[in-house]
Structures are given as structure tokens and as C-alpha cells.
């Protein structure tokens, strides 16, 4: 019985550690990139991958510990991409699921078994020059919402409703508590 609280505490620590490691302040704790972020990217407003892009631009000026962390995160991101998953480890837009419960992307480009998502053709036509990641495809589809197919509009509407329900319940993008 004493092991369960330790396991829960360990799981919480593991889940929260990626954000702590980059240097985001959480209860006075700082990660290995904290000083680099302040020094090199202090004027950057976080969000939409801007901080990561800034850190990549200044990669040569980063401390050793921060370079190591950035390299580790990049490798993890590449492994997820190689696995056919997006930046958050999920695939958008395909409502059917394979045997592991994964969902397909809006364009279905990484969908298994040749299945394509409802926004596949819309993305090719309207957002073909956009690099996937950091919500760029979603933003592109939103910008062109009047030009997308009915099936894609329906999927976008369902996603937005799901996101609003999570927000109403006090949960963030990934379903975790807000207020980080």
C-alpha cells in the first residue's frame, strides 16, 4: 500500500519534468535552459513554436546542458514523427482508430493502411506549402474555413467543440489541469 503513493508521485514528476527542464519557472525551480532563454530569447513571446525556433537559431550559443536537452527533445520529436505521429504524439482528423487507438492526421498523410482524413485534399489544395507542426496546419485550415470541404468543416467543428468542453472543464489542450 505504501508503494502506490510513491508510484503516483513518480508519475507526476515524470510527466511534469519536460516543462521544468527547459527552464520554465515552476515554483522557483529552473531547468538547464533557463539562463539561455533569458539571455538569448528573453524578448520572444512563447507560443506557436516561437521559443523553440529562437533556441534553434541560437543553438551554437547555448550552454552544454541546454544543448543536450534540446538534442534529446529533437530526437524524441523525430521518433514520434517517424512513428507517423505529430508533435503532440497524436494524429489529427481520422475518427476511425487502429488497434492501438491512434487517430489520423487532418491530411491523412501518415495514416495507416492508406486511409486519409477528411481534410486531406483541402490541406493539399490550400495549405500545401505550410510545414506541419506547432498548430500551423490547424491555423491554415481555420484561415481557409470558407473554402474547405463539408467533411473537413465537420471535423474542425467537432475538434473545436471538444476543445471548448475541455476548457469549460478547466482542462488544457492535452486534457491536463490549467494554471501551469
Describe this entry's structure for a reader.
The protein is mainly α. It has a domain at 112-168. Helices cover 49% and strands 0% of the residues. The chain is built from seven helices and no strands. It is extended, with a radius of gyration of 19 Å. Mean pLDDT is 70; it is low at 17-21, 23-28 and 85-115.
Short synopsis of the structure:
With 180 residues, the chain is mainly alpha-helical. The chain has helices at 3-22, 34-41, 50-57, 64-82, 120-126, 136-143, 150-168. It has a domain at 112-168.
List descriptors.
180 residues; mainly alpha; 7 helices
The number of strands is: 0
Shape: extended
Counting helices, strands and paired strands, the structural category is mainly alpha
> Residue share in helices?
40-55%
- The DSSP helix count reads 7
Give the oligomeric state of the chains in this entry, treating copies of one chain as homo and distinct chains as hetero: single chain
Proportion of beta-strand residues: under 5%
Mean pLDDT: 70
Reported for the largest beta sheet, the result is: none
Low-confidence stretches: 17-21, 23-28, 85-115
Rounded to the nearest angstrom, the radius of gyration is 19 Å
**How far apart are the termini?**
30 Å
Order of helices and strands: HHHHHHH
